[in-house]
Amino acid sequence: MAELLLGKNVTADLNEKIKAKTAKLKEKGISPKLGIIRVGENESDIAYERGAVKRCEALGVEYEKFFLPADVSTEDVLELIEKVNNDRNIHGVLLFRPLPKGLDSEKIENALDPAKDVDCMTEISIGSVFTGKNKGYPPCTPQACMEILKYYGYDLTGKNVVIVGRSLVVGKPVAMMCMKENATITVCHTKTKNMPEITRKADILIVAAGHAGTVTADYVSEGQAVIDVGINVDSAGKMCGDVDFEAVEPIVAAITPVPGGVGGVTTSVLLSHVADAAEKQGITQAILSQRLGM
After folding, report:
1. Best label site of 28, 101, 130, 161, fewest CB within 10 Å?
2. Mean pLDDT of 204-211
3. Start-end of CATH 3.40.50.10860 domains in the chain
4. Pick from 165, 128, 123: nearest CA to 262
5. Which pTM was predicted?
6. CATH value of 29-115 in 3.40.50.300, 3.40.50.10860, 1.10.620.20, 3.50.50.60
7. How is the chain split among helix, strand and coil, in percent rounded to 5?
8. 35-48: per-residue pLDDT in tens?
């Protein structure tokens, strides 16, 4: 039976750190605040929003919700982005993506102030992930994968990490983040030949394919740790990952369940970025005030 890499343990550890940082910032007159922008009525966005709000309330992070209808214009969304950019009380912004069709997503995403880009939406932020420079914040879901591996004691140095999925949301950035930790990386995708042969050789397998049951028993081998990023709903209406858990769990050494794995950690990573952003922006404001007072 595989060890379950439970997200709740990682989340509890992160939450304590966030609460401690938030308390210290409030002593200095800085109250971390998240701006949540949702365009349209996508059910998964609403569910994530609900979870983010609940986590904010539990950790002492303020929040403000902004809602726009799905038929909104690009100009109206940009106007809202400018508003949150200029609001000194908002330190981080969560904009749900993908945006509805008809909107200029690239223009909207890059309009956000990179200092408030706590989920790696702008080209500046994603560029820093690929260059290895510590500017901005990495995407929350890939960072959640890294937090899980770190918490459960996985040193990636010299390890063979195979990633299934090449999206800019998870696959590509998590590959760069693993490489930064000195892992040897292979990225598989829909055009990869003999994928099971490749994935079976991994020490750590990260699956972000976007399709339920992509990874089955023939994709894995003994001793592996499997991180399942997928969130899907099966024909019975049950939440499941991209890995066939029932088939894979008896074979591998460790695996994240769905639900109960990466998803919950992602929300805490988001709020840790908000707290960090509040701290950095508070320092910047203090320096500016000192200069103006000279």
Report:
1. 101
2. 96
3. 29-115
4. 165
5. 0.93
6. 3.40.50.10860
7. 45, 15, 40
8. 999 999 998 899 89
